[in-house]
């Protein structure tokens, strides 16, 4: 049974004409009628079904306005580098001891960063970390010897763009409390990143089929796309 709050939301938004993100953000915010600071989310469908192969995107993007979330970051690193990792802002730091804790199911973090030399040991825990989306990856900047920058990026608003088997990419790009300009900056950064990915792919037709924007407890609106996708 729908709540009174939900019944007050607009109906059949999918039949409305697509509009630009700057016009839609105020509308989506208006629908944020809950007591908490709702996330503003994107649902992107890419054209991943190609004749010769499927398109698989997996990359990281640093949102200039952040995500509005406090990300708990763990770092697996050699003993002599653990002090630097802590000073860089990591919430959990360890070496073999942290790997053992992870092996025993202690996954009280949201992002895991690992130094290059420790990755061989950590890779053995793929069955534990993989299904949770926590396995460090060089392409995402989470397997690196520049631990300081990796932690800084994770804390500042780095997110992962990854499509599922049906070509869907879901992500949050800010909060209701963000200014419209900051949300637009984050949105444009996501699209710029996908445009760069497109240039590295062999793809026939557009990369993006459609984009919908919504809030955590709101309804979705279709975003009008430019000619580059």
Can you walk through the features of this model?
The chain has 2 domains: 12-67 and 158-222, Ribulose 1,5 Bisphosphate Carboxylase/Oxygenase (2-Layer Sandwich), CATH 3.30.190.20; 73-156, Rossmann fold (3-Layer(aba) Sandwich). The chain has helices at residues 4-7, 21-30, 82-87, 96-103, 119-122, 126-129, 147-156, 180-199, and strands spanning 39-46, 58-62, 73-76, 92-94, 111-114, 158-162, 168-175, 208-215, 221-222. The longest helix is centred in the C-terminal third of the chain and has 20 residues, at 180-199. The chain has 8 helices and 9 strands. The protein is 29% helix and 21% strand. The chain has a 4-stranded antiparallel beta sheet with strand order 7-1-8-9, covered by helices on one side. A 3-stranded parallel beta sheet has the order 4-3-5. A two-stranded antiparallel sheet has the order 2-6. It starts with a helix and ends in a 7-residue tail after the last strand.
Largest sheet: 4 strands, antiparallel
Please tally the β strands and state the result.
9
CATH architecture of the largest domain: 2-Layer Sandwich
Which whole number gives the mean pLDDT? 89
Quickly give the structural class.
alpha/beta
Oligomer, anyone? single chain
CATH superfamily of the largest domain: Ribosomal protein L1/L10, rRNA-binding domain
The secondary-structure element order is: HHEEEHEHEHHHEEHEE
Name the beta content range: 15-25%
Spatial strand sequence of the major β-sheet:
7-1-8-9
- Helix share, percent: 25-40%
Uncertain stretches of 5 or more adjacent residues = none
Count of folded domains: 2
Named CATH topology of the largest domain: Ribulose 1,5 Bisphosphate Carboxylase/Oxygenase
Outline type: globular
SS field, number of helical segments: 8
CATH class of the largest domain: Alpha Beta
What is the C-alpha radius of gyration, as a whole number of Å? 20 Å
From the N-terminal CA to the C-terminal CA, the straight-line distance is 39 Å
């Amino acid at each position: 049974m729908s709540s009174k709050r939900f019944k007050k939301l607009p109906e059949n938004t999918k039949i409305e004409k697509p509009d630009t993100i700057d016009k839609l953000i105020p509308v989506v915010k208006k629908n944020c009628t809950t007591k908490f600071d709702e996330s503003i989310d994107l649902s992107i469908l890419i054209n991943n079904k190609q004749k010769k192969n499927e398109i698989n995107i997996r990359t990281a993007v640093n949102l200039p306005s952040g995500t509005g979330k406090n990300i708990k970051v763990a770092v697996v690193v050699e003993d002599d580098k653990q002090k630097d990792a802590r000073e860089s802002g990591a919430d959990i730091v360890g070496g073999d001891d942290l790997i053992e804790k992870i092996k025993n199911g202690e996954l009280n973090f949201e992002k895991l960063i690992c130094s290059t030399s420790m990755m061989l040991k950590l890779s053995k825990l793929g069955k534990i970390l993989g299904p949770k989306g926590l396995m460090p990856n060089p392409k995402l900047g989470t397997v690196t010897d520049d631990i300081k920058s990796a932690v800084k990026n994770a804390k500042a608003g780095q997110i992962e763009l990854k499509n599922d088997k049906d070509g869907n990419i879901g992500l949050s790009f800010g909060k209701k409390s963000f200014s419209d300009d900051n949300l637009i900056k984050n949105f444009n950064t996501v699209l710029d990143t996908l445009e760069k990915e497109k240039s590295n792919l062999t793809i026939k037709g557009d990369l993006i089929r459609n984009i919908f924007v919504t809030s955590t407890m709101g309804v979705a609106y279709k975003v009008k796309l430019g000619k580059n996708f």
